[in-house]
Design a protein that fits this description.
The structure is a single chain. This protein is an alpha+beta fold. The protein has a domain of 374 residues: Cytochrome P450 (Cytochrome p450, Orthogonal Bundle), CATH 1.10.630. It contains 19 helices and 10 strands. It has a 4-stranded mixed β-sheet with strand order 1-2-6-3. A two-stranded antiparallel sheet has the order 4-5. Helix 9 packs across helix 11 and helix 11 crosses helix 13. The longest helix has 67 residues. The structure holds protoporphyrin IX containing FE (HEM). The site of protoporphyrin IX containing FE (HEM) has 27 residues, from helix 5, helix 11 and helix 18.
Length: 576
């Protein structure tokens, strides 16, 4: 008998069968296990996928519901704002062309009052305001710009921290630019060196020799040189590529809004790539002038200033100072791109707006020679009392400053001020709630020529409306009509005038107001006045002989809703 614990040493068919049975059952259970596992995994994946689908469905439904809810809310809120009912699904946008929007709003305000709504589409509400008090409140509360504005700047100039839609993104850079500009105004008034005027006149004389000199061309060049020399200092006046830069800015200005109006960037259009090519060229030129500025600035420090006269020194200091407020040129790609983007943005906005103001000023002075003569006397009087020969004391030239304000009033940079509140609804004191993302507009042209804010002669050129009589503080414009004002006040010396702050009148909005008001307002008024003080001291501005003066005056006063037509002017040297 074999002991129980004995291990068989030989394999019998029975044991082979048993072991293979065991083996089989092991393999089978392993297969079953793995089948089980894969079934479990499959189940898990299916469940996960279903959960994902459910989650997506719920998210999309919630999103859609939110959209529908917001839309219903927008429609409900809009019901409380007066305005024409919307008869078409597409809103009123088909009726409104760019040219006649101001006129459409003028009619609507007469009918519905100071606040009017207009549907641009089923989801896009435009709200226009015409009451100065309401506007002031709105411009303080609505802190964002329309997304289109930010897109136009980004598309043309790349990353920028100025001129973007969201107030949060722009606030810091706005503040540093404002501090820089106002600091410079306090420390040293913007002395426009004779060099800048000479540089402008040299170019204009070339134009005159070629036979054509129209207001638009002159003003564009003046604005460009004024701004360029302010930002980059003297390096800009001798910069060989300045003319190309000016041309590029003009070309980009023509198309910027068109390409930004596409909600999907039109990469498939050839025209878009040509536009981008222009923008890249502008960027390279900006980098070039920024580098030149820096190089000169370094040289200036190294050479102890001996090689440079006072004006050059000031130009360089100003260039290095003002560039720092646009960003850092520290070799970091994003920072460098942002600096260039900001500079291009300011050159673009500054040149467009300043050239509009200068053009209007030139045309007004050419058609009002008696006011021009009075300003000339004012300049000579102020000059005689001034210690520094190179520095114009424009603060004393009250009629000149009043003329700059009046030109800005009669022809603001754009017909509409635009704002929106991207995230929040806000409530006006009148109880009206303005929904988030509504397009808010102020028809500045209407407002700045409104009889109720400016008197009977609101549409006429009358710089005296910004001056008061020092004797009794009465407003000069209230006592007389504008026509012939210069003659009527001939007996008044400059010490009789007090210059009113134009912003005291809430209907004066060429530079906007509130959270996103123009940072360059004071700077540009002083700069343009200083430039004209230098210019008028040496030159007289006249219309070309062929232009009948009375006809032109008539045209100027009638051009309420249009930009002034380009007109031919000449500069006559005063001592010749
Ligand atoms: C005649 C010349 C100018 C006019 C008529 C003008 C007009 C304006 C207007 C209407 C606005 C929008 C205001 C608002 O929404 O309330 C604005 C904004 C601005 N302007 Fe000017 N501007 C001029 C020149 C300049 C210059 C020379 C600079 C810079 C040196 C400048 C810098 C700015 C800036 C930084 C903003 C604000 C941008 C923002 O917050 O998004 N402007 N300007």
């Amino acid at each position: 008998m074999k002991s129980c614990g004995a291990v068989p040493t030989t394999t019998t068919p029975a044991t082979t069968f048993l072991s293979s049975l065991l083996q089989y059952s092991k393999t089978k259970s392993r297969t079953r296990d793995s089948l089980e596992t894969s079934r479990l995994l499959r189940d898990f994946a299916t469940r996960e996928f279903n959960a994902f689908l459910w989650f997506s469905l719920i998210a999309v439904t919630a999103l859609l519901l939110r959209k529908v809810f917001n839309l219903l809310r927008l429609w409900a809120q809009a019901r409380n704002i007066p305005g024409p009912p919307c008869t078409s699904f597409y809103g009123h946008s088909k009726l409104i062309s760019r040219e006649n929007l101001t006129e459409v709003l003028s009619v609507l305000h007469k009918k519905y009052g100071p606040i009017v709504k207009l549907w641009l589409g089923p989801t896009q509400l435009l709200v226009s305001m015409k009451d100065p008090g309401l506007i002031k409140e709105m411009l303080l509360k609505a802190e964002d710009k329309l997304p289109l504005t930010g897109r136009a700047f980004r598309l043309a100039f790349g990353p920028t921290s100025l001129f973007v839609s969201s107030f949060d993104e722009v606030q810091r850079r706005r503040e540093s630019l404002a501090t820089e500009l106002s600091g410079r105004l306090i420390e040293k008034p913007p002395a426009i060196p004779t060099k800048v005027v000479d540089c402008i006149m040299e170019r204009l004389n070339k134009f005159m020799a070629e036979g054509s000199l129209d207001c638009n061309m002159v003003s564009q060049h003046m604005a460009f040189t004024l701004l360029g020399s302010t930002l980059f200092g003297d390096a800009f006046l001798t910069w060989s590529k300045a003319t190309v830069y000016e041309e590029l800015l003009t070309m980009i200005a023509k198309d910027a809004c068109f390409w930004a109006s596409y909600s999907i960037t039109p990469y498939w259009k050839r025209g878009f790539w040509s536009y981008q090519h222009l923008c890249t060229k502008l960027r390279l030129l900006t980098q070039d002038i920024v580098q030149q500025c820096q190089k000169n600035n370094k040289l200036f420090h190294q050479k102890d200033g001996n090689h440079y006269n006072g004006i050059t020194k000031m130009g360089m200091e100003s260039a290095s100072g003002s560039l720092s407020c646009f960003g850092e040129l520290n070799g970091h790609l994003n920072a460098t791109e942002e600096l260039c983007g900001n500079i291009m943005g300011v050159m673009f906005h500054g040149c467009l707006t300043t050239s509009g103001l200068i053009g209007n000023l030139l045309a007004r002075l050419a058609t009002h020679p008696q006011i021009q003569e009075k300003i000339f006397s004012e300049i000579i009087m102020a000059r005689n009392g001034s210690m520094k020969q190179d520095q114009q004391c424009v603060d004393k030239m009250r009629l000149l400053l009043a003329t700059v304000y009046e030109s800005a009033r009669l022809l603001p940079a754009g017909p509409l001020l635009q704002r929106c509140s991207l995230k929040h609804d806000f409530r006006l004191e009148t109880g009206v709630t303005i929904p988030a993302r509504a397009v808010l507009v102020v028809p500045v042209q209407l407002l700045q020529m409104d009889d109720s804010s400016w008197g009977q002669d609101a549409s006429e050129f009358n710089p005296y409306r910004f001056l008061s009589n020092a004797g009794n503080g009465s407003d000069l414009a209230l006592n007389t009509s504008s026509t012939g004002n210069a003659e009527k006040h001939e007996h008044l010396g400059e010490s009789f005038f007090i210059l009113n702050d134009p912003n005291d009148n809430a209907a004066f909005l060429p530079f906007g107001s509130g959270a996103r008001a123009c940072v360059g307002q004071k700077f540009v008024i002083q700069g343009v006045a200083t430039l004209f003080a230098s210019l008028l001291e040496h030159y007289e501005i006249r219309l070309l002989e062929s232009e009948s003066q009375s006809d032109s005056k008539q045209m100027m006063n009638n051009s309420v809703f249009q930009h002034l037509p380009s007109r031919e002017i000449v500069f006559i040297r005063r001592n010749s």
